[in-house]
Amino acid sequence: MHLPVTRPAEPAAPSVSTRHLRAFHAVCLHGSVSQASAALCRAQSAVTRAVLQLESELGAPLFERSVHGMLPTRFGQVLLRRVERAFAYMDTAYRDVAVLSRDARRSGLYSLHMNERRLKALIELSRRRHMGAAAEALGISQPAVSLMLRDIEQEIGATLFERGVRGLYPTQAGETVIWQLKLALNEIRIAADEVAAIRGLKQGEVRVGVLSLGRSYVLPVAITRLLRKHPQLKVSTMEGAFEVQVNALRAGEIDFVLGALRPPQHCKGLSREPLLNDMMAVVCRAGHPLCARAGVSLADTLAHEWALPHAGTPTRSLFETLFSSRGIGQPQITLETTDLSIIREVLLESDMLSLVSPHQYRREFSSGMLCQLPLALPETARQVGLLRRTDDRPSPGAQLLLAEVRAITSIPEVPLTELELSL
Q1: pLDDT (mean) for 192-200
Q2: How many of the other CB atoms lie within 10 Å of CB of 310?
Q3: Distance between CA atoms of residues 248 and 186, nearest Å
Q4: Which of 189, 70, 83 is nearest to 61 (CA)?
């Protein structure tokens, strides 16, 4: 079965116009368009148009209007909570920039009152580190991107990028502005999904960072169940090194990470939620000489070659600790790869061994392609679970997917179903 899961090339853009949020926020605070327009020094008609535009984009009334003023509806209250969180992130950005630059000034950037293309230009520049590549991604000319960046830097009174021979490099001010901007835009994206959820629509995109122990069984099954119930949702996954995924999580580019949990010192500012305990296994092809040997021991594996992930990876570290703690020397490692497909095919075509989680080759064990040697390896025990931001308030879609993941990991492991075998 083909899963509609893709690798996200970039953060999803909010579906509402950020430049109208300041007007919406002012009306919420002051209770009327006239008072909001006075506070913003804008015409009442401009404030009114901004609110109407937001209501049109979200497909919901944001205010109850009466002769006594305007009060946020249930939809408006949802948007207001997210807008205030977004503005708080941008206030943090302003305070940090003010410490770094004596010329720092307030600008429309910090209230998101800026053309969305200019905001996206900052994010593209931080990702691609090249003016031409950012221009191509935005579908505009390189001089236009350069002009946008120059105007933004002049407005806020700080240099955001240093120009080098190999491209652009964010300054300290640039890193904090873009970091907080990503978090702010993520709040607005979620606000649109929450408003839709109140209207009975489960829509939007859930973005998941997935490590090796999550992508072979738990996440594919959870996604399948989620999309069967809520086909309007979209799920995208991000694969890669743990450090890359943690940085994306902190910046709001993904909703959570699923996989083997690292020690708490590697996850500062993130919440760890253990879901299940995992223990590694020595794996080989069915019919391997060690499969038929009675009373096989770990020392017996020294006579065979191994396929393992690269040095420095968690699995390799567990492997090295396992053999050294038992004082039986280190086996010969002839293949180094983190690609489970390559390891599987090599195991099937040779007498090589590997150390993997049984979850990663669950289908191959069920079909009799691979076998697990009867070795107890308590030294390799580890937890599989979720990583989330400590201040996270997940979108409705992310909450639904989290519920599916928790449901799968809360029940005893059962044989593969026909559905799971087809994944």
Answers
A1: 94
A2: 11
A3: 12
A4: 70
Amino acid at 196: A
236 contacts 205 by C-beta, under 8 angstroms: yes
Q: CB pairs under 8 A, 24+ apart, for 217-221?
A: 217/359, 217/360, 217/362, 217/420, 218/258, 218/275, 218/359, 218/384, 218/405, 218/408, 218/409, 219/258, 219/405, 220/3, 220/5, 220/420, 220/423, 221/408, 221/419, 221/420, 221/423
What is the average pLDDT across 294-316? Answer: 92
Q: Is the dihedral of CA 146, 150, 151, 152 positive or negative?
A: positive
Pairing of strands 370-372, 281-285: antiparallel
**What's the confidence (pLDDT) of residue 22?**
96
Kindly report the backbone phi and psi dihedral angles of residue 271, in degrees, each rounded to the nearest multiple of 5, phi listed first. Answer: -100, 135
Look at residues 168, 192, 182 and name the one whose alpha carbon lies nearest to residue 248: 182
Copy the structure tokens of residue 83. Answer: 């807008």
Instruction: Calculate ∠ Cα 376-378-384, nearest 5°.
Output: 115
Residue closest to 299 by CA, chosen among 271, 328, 324:
328
pLDDT in tens, 26-84: 999 999 999 999 999 999 999 999 999 999 999 999 999 998 899 999 999 999 999 99
- Contact present, 272 and 264 (Cβ < 8 Å): yes
Tokens 């300054």, residue located? 171
Among residues 124, 122, 96, which one has the least CA distance to residue 109?
A: 122
Q: Please provide the average confidence, as pLDDT, over all residues in the chain.
A: 90
